[in-house]
Amino acid sequence: MKTLQNPWRGKGLPEQPDLAAGTVSEDAEKAGALYGKCPKAQPTPLQDLPAFASRFGVGALAVKDERRRMGLGSFKALGAAYAIAKQADRKVRSGAATSYETALTGTTFVCASAGNHGMSLAAGAPLFGAEAVVFVSETVPDAFAVRLAQKGARVVRAGATYEDSMAEAGRQAAEHGWQLLPDSTWPGMTEPGRDVMEGYLVMGTEIAQQISSPPTHIFLQAGVGGLAAACAVSARATWGQDVALIVVEPDKAPALLASIEAGKPVTAPGPASVMGRLDCKEPSHLALKYLAREADHFVTISDAEAEETVALLAKEGLATTPSGAAGLAALHHAGDLRDAVGLGPDARVLCYLSEGPEDG
Description:
Oligomer: single chain
CATH topology of the largest domain: Rossmann fold
Radius of gyration: 19 Å
């Protein structure tokens, strides 16, 4: 495990030409109001796991279980589908559309996905009369491509990596007049990804109502950083500066940690990780900016550490993937991080079980 104490804590990255302008959304009330209109809008559980707390050497462990969110198996059900619903809501409110079901007829949404973002887009688009096209790389399993197609999306394979499929999604979106809806942000492309992250704020609102005692430490797994940034927004809004925020990435894809070290967004090349949902080599700029100001530590974990934790959780009926368990894996294998962040028998830790198993 590599551990980095955030040198930008409290001040954030310096302004620079290659860093996207703008900020993440902190409007949890808007997110909750729109989410509440969905027939499948139900809170996911917050589980207390005293046996794991004891095993991991902390006083208490609460886990936000996103494995059944809206029947899509992941927190990302709150993302692309929310961003699409937000567009439909604007049209209905303005009078440009007469119903939600047809508000976005004629619109095609497109994204690249290594997993659940594509499922959220595929499920969300047809609810409002739109179509969905999802680009996946050669490494994405056929079973996932089938699941996307079953939701009504057109699936296009493009390139050897997620970054390759993203580039092709952008190219074809421009060529065909489709609307690109990424779960990341970069210069010139911030609003869609900002809306996606806004949807994730729903989790934090639920946790604030469910948790019995304020956490002292929160472990946040990160790919491009959207989940981590939204959960950090919620944590700071609810508990202020007293809670320690630890961002967790695969050691083969430390996009945020490497960018924090460099003081600017960088690409962190490396081999593929079994944490496929987190195997992102470039950070979301708005997420990076927020986490640079608010996160306390950035850490990386190995594939083996993630897989070991998945196996341990499965024995207790908590089936997930290496990506879904990454925050818990960092707690499980905290090592020297314990002293750095004050993890001990009095610590109250919050983690996220962000997705169900691949076959779930």
